[in-house]
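Could you please consider the sequence and fold appended to this message?
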Amino acid sequence: MKSFKKFLESKIENSEQTENKDWKKEFIKLEKGFVPPSNMKPIIKAFEESSDISLMKDTSKEIKMPRKSLYLTGGSVRDFLRNKTPKNYNLATDATPKQVSIILKNYGFSQDNHKKSFTIEGNNVIVNVEGDEFQISTLMKGDQYTDNIEHDSQRRDLTINSLYIELSKSDGENNKLYDPTKKGWYDIVHGNIKSIGNPETKFREDKLRMMRTIRFYSQYGKGELDKDIKKAIAELRSEVDSLPYEKIREEFLKGLTNPDIDPRKYLENYSKVGLLEKIFKNVSLNLDVPPDFSNKKDKILALAWILQDNPIDEVENVLSNWTSQEKCAVVCLLKLKDFNLDNLEDLLASKKISGLSEEQIRNWVELFNVEGRSLKPKWTKMVKAFAKFVPNREELVGWNSAELSNSHPFARNQLIKTINKEKIKEMFKKQLE
């Protein structure tokens, strides 16, 4: 029978011999390597020193942890390869969450250190370094941990999302790019959006991937959408209804407000595959987007624009699962299309609860310009004035006004409303002069 020491040594030795260890020899050497930001460096240094961690000591030999690897992956790699600074840094490792915690503790991290802390959340470790947050995910094969990125890549959706840059240097450039599908590097360079394996299978695993795919295609894609992906979406788009609407809303807005995505192209791509109609049901959708639309990057303006051809009550109904503020803001903008001095009080109340800024209202007006000129100059002038209009409350008649003191309470209330309505209109007209 093996001693416990021999058993542990054999387990460590076997853990270093993966099924396909050759993948470590197959990498693309980047001409310009990834240089970690300053607050990521302590994490990489912790992994650099992982092989110094003692697992077991006895009188004859000290057994240490095999050095664990750390990779940059996901959107971080996509951004870097396109010469953009990543917004978030996604990290992956062959260490289990428990091992990650040991590695971090060995380098001075703790769960109550406000400068270098971490928490374990399922298969992920969330690390905070002086306010910057990094997520470290353990490589997975199905629902099991693995030390092989080829296994991990197969659970991802698209080839461009399965690229890994090995982080072996906390200082200097990291030049090893692993492309386990052998297609990710080529596809991101050529603007191909391809599924890893059968797209229908991937979409059945997670229905939200259909929407994610259109977002990535709108951001990175060139040419026509892959025919197998189009076919799979056509087959499964009805199943989007089974998703929680909050997830649908969140994913849709990710693309609509992404600074690197043309919202005109985004809406058009959604419409072509029949997904836009799954999000906004039983309403007319206006996709005749003005040229200036791409510069606004405002979800409220975008929602109001595509829904503007519908009655207000239908808009309120289709946005019933959106936030109250979003719904109120969209409705307010749509009401402004029929701006009328007789509705001034109602519009002011709508603007107040909507949270719309003066800039948003002015941008809304500008969307209706053609070649920089307004087709409705009078309307444009009034709504832009309305955007910054705030009635002087001191000039309004109050309940205790002497001139109304002898009136019946009900009649007095109606009279106050009538008088103030006219006073507010007069204030607004003066602002227009």
